[in-house]
């Protein structure tokens, strides 16, 4: 199968993942309500909750108008992220830590259960809620370990490029050149290093986009799962990048826009308990939940097609469906490449 080019693209991944979700709609609805809906709601409400709890004169139900002039692009709110980096509030940091931990746990639980169900749904197996929940027992800690390993590598890359930038500046100063901290050259160096770091991290993120699916499906974890993902995604990097950008941009705009807009809507509607604000939170959380569900399912479908592209899926299908023909469409709108397996 790897001998000729594939025709799979973003829309093929989306259509296949949507088909699996629709075939087990109630099952995926239960998983989404259990894990993704609380995650989506917390992402949208976090800024509002932080503003209400830690700013003097702010009230969660009837906020003061001076705390509500916040937009997606600019903020005149007393909560200034730059200021709090230099003058951190212990209570605010504690809330951030608790929120980060909650979001990470919900994300990993959703990844474990939805990936497990999508994988079995891809083969047409019956999916059961109890089985999906039980899969967490085997995959949660490996997912945590893989997450930690990937974040440590990201941190080391950022640290390495930061040290290189410092070495360059110190070297220039050692040669007798004066470098001011407000120099345009120093600013240009910082921008260049930042762009390089973003590109490197993005490249790694694309290569590791299947790692969490591999943890759930293949019981590999840590650096081994990252290596396995980098191998499988070869030849499909543009598809993986398009999936990441598609869902990343949509979810980012939805959550970021609704989170920042929520405060100003609260002022116009008479507080965060007004019907309009509650409706906005419910609708926004619902759409974000659907996007996250589709994102996880699309990652599993992409994993299956990557295995097919590397010639690994035929044996799996032969073992799964003995004496049957199994077709794997790569693009419904074109003449499809198929995996056709017959075992006598």
Automatic annotation (TrEMBL):
Coiled-coil residue windows: none
Keyword Cytoplasm: no
Keyword terms: Membrane, Transmembrane, Transmembrane helix
Transmembrane segments: 28-49, 93-116, 136-169, 189-217, 238-265, 277-305
UniProt xrefs under PANTHER family: F26K24.10 PROTEIN-RELATED, OS08G0107100 PROTEIN-RELATED
The name this protein goes by in its record: Glycerophosphoryl diester phosphodiesterase membrane domain-containing protein
């Amino acid at each position: 199968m790897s001998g000729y080019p594939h025709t799979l693209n973003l829309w093929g991944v989306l259509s296949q993942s949507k088909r699996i979700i629709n075939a087990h709609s109630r099952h995926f609805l239960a998983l989404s309500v259990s894990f993704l809906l609380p995650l989506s709601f917390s992402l949208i409400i976090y800024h509002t909750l932080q503003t209400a709890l830690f700013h003097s004169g702010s009230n969660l139900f009837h906020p003061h108008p001076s705390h509500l002039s916040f937009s997606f692009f600019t903020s005149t709110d007393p909560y200034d992220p730059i200021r709090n980096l230099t003058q951190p509030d212990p209570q605010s940091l504690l809330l951030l830590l608790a929120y980060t931990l909650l979001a990470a746990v919900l994300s990993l639980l959703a990844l474990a259960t939805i990936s497990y169900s999508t994988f079995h749904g891809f083969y047409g197996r019956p999916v059961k809620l109890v089985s999906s929940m039980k899969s967490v027992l085997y995959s949660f800690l490996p997912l945590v370990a893989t997450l930690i390993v990937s974040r440590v590598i990201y941190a080391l890359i950022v640290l390495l490029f930061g040290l290189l930038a410092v070495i360059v500046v110190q070297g220039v100063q050692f040669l007798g050149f004066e470098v001011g901290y407000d120099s345009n050259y120093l600013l240009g160096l910082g921008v260049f290093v930042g762009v390089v770091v973003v590109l490197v991290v993005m490249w790694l993120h694309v290569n590791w986009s299947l790692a969490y699916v591999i943890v759930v499906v293949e019981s590999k974890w840590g650096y081994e799962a990252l290596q396995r993902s980098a191998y499988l995604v070869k030849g499909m990097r543009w598809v993986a990048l398009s999936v990441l950008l598609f869902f990343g941009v949509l979810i980012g705009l939805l959550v970021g826009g609704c989170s920042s807009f929520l405060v100003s809507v609260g002022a116009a509607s008479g507080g965060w308990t007004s019907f309009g604000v509650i409706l906005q939170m419910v609708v926004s959380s619902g759409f974000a939940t659907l996007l996250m569900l589709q994102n996880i399912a699309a990652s599993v479908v992409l994993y299956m097609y990557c295995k097919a592209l590397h010639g690994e899926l035929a044996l799996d299908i032969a073992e799964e469906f003995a004496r049957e023909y199994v077709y794997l469409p790569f693009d419904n709108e074109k003449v499809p490449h198929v995996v056709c397996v017959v075992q006598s």
